[in-house]
Write a structure and sequence with these properties.
The protein has about 180 residues and is of the alpha/beta class. The protein is built from 6 helices and 8 strands.
Length: about 180
């Protein structure tokens, strides 16, 4: 791992009871315990994000501009995402559409996914492929997938889930090439 690595944990659920946000907060805590330079960005704090492709999407927007700035300075990105209909949420995809090469190129990317049941565990793959092919991101091949049984009332109740998040937090830095400079 390089000395200047910086991790952004990006939570993309709009649900106030989000399980993916709880997993992201736990990952942030672990990264900080490992003395990593890490920050959590919650999409709810960015304001009303415009829809990609709309006229307002290409105008200055405080939340989008802040996210772009933070991502430009990051080497690693940990998406904490809900899985809906066997895919990452539309809001997650919309955020990526609003970003560009300067914000995403070459990042090491990991995934914390949460869904109601066990069947959508491969739902992150098309999104991961797009990041890998379009932005040349390094994808950590350990996806963490949680269900409603793993996180209750915003608390992780599964020791197995905690272990898998710990493994991902470690592997993001130790098993995947980290960049020497933000943006590659």
């Amino acid at each position: 791992m390089t000395e200047n690595s910086r991790v952004i944990v990006l939570t993309t659920s709009l649900n106030p009871q989000s399980r993916s946000r709880a997993a992201g907060a736990y990952a942030l805590e672990l990264l900080r315990q490992q003395n990593r330079d890490a920050e959590l960005i919650d999409i709810r704090d960015l304001g009303d994000i415009p829809l990609a492709g709309s006229a307002s999407a290409w105008s200055p927007h405080p939340g989008v501009d802040l996210l772009k700035e933070k991502l430009r300075g990051a080497t690693h990105l940990l998406f904490a995402v809900p899985i809906y209909n066997f895919s990452v949420s539309g809001m997650t995809k919309n955020l990526v559409e609003l970003m560009g090469m300067d914000e995403l190129k070459g990042k090491t990317v990991g995934f914390l996914c949460a869904a109601g049941g066990p069947r959508g565990y491969m739902g992150v793959l098309p999104f991961a492929n797009a990041l890998m092919l379009d932005f040349r991101c390094w994808i950590v091949p350990r996806f963490v997938y949680a269900t409603r049984d793993d996180i209750v009332d915003g608390q992780i109740v599964s020791d197995d889930l905690k272990l898998r998040i710990e493994q991902l937090a470690h592997e993001m830095h130790e098993r995947v090439p980290a960049l020497t400079q933000p943006g590659g």
